[in-house]
Amino acid sequence: MKSKTEYLKFRTAKRIEFVNITREVEKVVRESGVKEGLALVNPMHITAAVIVNDEEGGLKRDYARVLEGLVPYGGEYEHNVGEDNAAAHIWRQLMGHQVVLPVTKGELDFGPWEQVFYCEFDGQREKRVLVKVIGE
Amino acid sequence: MKSKTEYLKFRTAKRIEFVNITREVEKVVRESGVKEGLALVNPMHITAAVIVNDEEGGLKRDYARVLEGLVPYGGEYEHNVGEDNAAAHIWRQLMGHQVVLPVTKGELDFGPWEQVFYCEFDGQREKRVLVKVIGE
Amino acid sequence: MKSKTEYLKFRTAKRIEFVNITREVEKVVRESGVKEGLALVNPMHITAAVIVNDEEGGLKRDYARVLEGLVPYGGEYEHNVGEDNAAAHIWRQLMGHQVVLPVTKGELDFGPWEQVFYCEFDGQREKRVLVKVIGE
Fold first, then answer.
1. Domain C2-135 maps to which CATH number in 2.60.120.460, 3.40.80.10, 1.10.10.10, 3.40.640.10?
2. Which residue of B has its CA nearest to C99?
3. In a mutagenesis test of the A interface, which of C29, C52, C97, C104 is the best target, namely the one with the most A β-carbons within 10 Å?
4. What are the sequence ranges of the domains in chain C?
5. What mean pLDDT do residues B37-63 have?
6. pLDDT 10s digits, A14-46
């Protein structure tokens, strides 16, 4: 069995941002030498998510607007004592916080529109995303 | 390490549909020869989800009604320029878009009610679901 | 390849409860002998979830209040014929029902605040959570 672990670093300019990280994940997969296996892409922080969806600017704004409608960032939360990011913790859960990606013949085994995104919900400070590839 | 990858094909009659695929996934697990490992079940399209829940018709209608209440299909979305499926992209995230299933002694290691479903949110055209089993 | 499977048992005092299981998962990882790999933590029941988030009491109450606001437990559901737990089935999906955890150098490869929680949404009866570690 082979494995490789990398930590991608992010510091977004805005508090809420959707960053396409497909290229970075593909690079780790290639460097791992794994031909058949799985790649876990997991934010190491609890106010962020990693998802697979479409590279389309309108959709990213739709996510943010829908999440704000369901769980308003400025709402009242018990967590927000000396904090103001309770909504970010909950958004991460609603969006599905991590992904496991298939690796086939040494590449991400994706459909035509699948892209990987780092979803920052409380940014403007350094965060990490772990990419771990295992297989043979 | 052993691995096996299969692509299940779907073309649902309705735009929104919940299809039980437990048998199909079990078949891939058996054919893989993996006794101890993991099975990733991942839609290769970004307006669909794979979930584990209960085989019960009322619950499936409840999912659709709840999702429509939270993120109306016919609502206003920036993504819907020449498209009308923004809600399907978002429903997929709310439902949790993929699953990783445990394989123990050559079988899906499930509790009494766990069943696997392909959740189509923008159907009536061909879609694929990847099943990848790795282990020993 | 090495693997180890354990079944954690729960019977919560309350119907809705968030139980920190990080220690129990770490124990299985250590006992597995896996140095580099993945750990799947998966509830074997369909009215529960496993998530990674913050150990903070206010946030747990926020989850419950937000979920109740989005999908009221006492609402009307087709599933609730002889049952009353449709909302629990749906909450599990919204929260993301399972997690896959990275194992590096024999330990959970976590950021500073990541903790694992069993989220019971229909408790007061025995439930199980599967922990499966694979790797080398």
1. 2.60.120.460
2. B100
3. C52
4. 2-135
5. 98
6. 999 999 999 999 999 999 999 999 999 999 999
Query: Residue B74's CB: how many other CB atoms inside 10 A?
Result: 9
What is the Cα–Cα distance from B15 to A19, expressed in whole angstroms?
A: 30
The pLDDT score that the predictor gives to residue C101 is 98
| Cα of B119 vs its chain's centroid, Å | 5
CB B124 within 8 A of CB B12: yes
What are the residues facing C5 on neighbouring strands?
A: C132
Cβ-defined contact of A93 to C1 (cutoff 8 Å): no
Q: How many CB contacts within 8 angstroms connect chain A with chain C?
A: 89
**Residue C104 touches chain B, beta carbons under 8 Å:** no
Enumerate the residues of chain A whose CB falls inside 8 A of the CB of residue C119: none
Contact A94 B97 (CB under 8 A): no
Give the CA angle between residues B133, B134, B135 to the nearest 5°. Answer: 130
Q: Do A100 and B97 touch (CB under 8 A)?
A: no
User: What ipTM does the predicted assembly reach?
Assistant: 0.97
pLDDT tens digits, residue range B110-128? 999 999 999 999 999 999 9
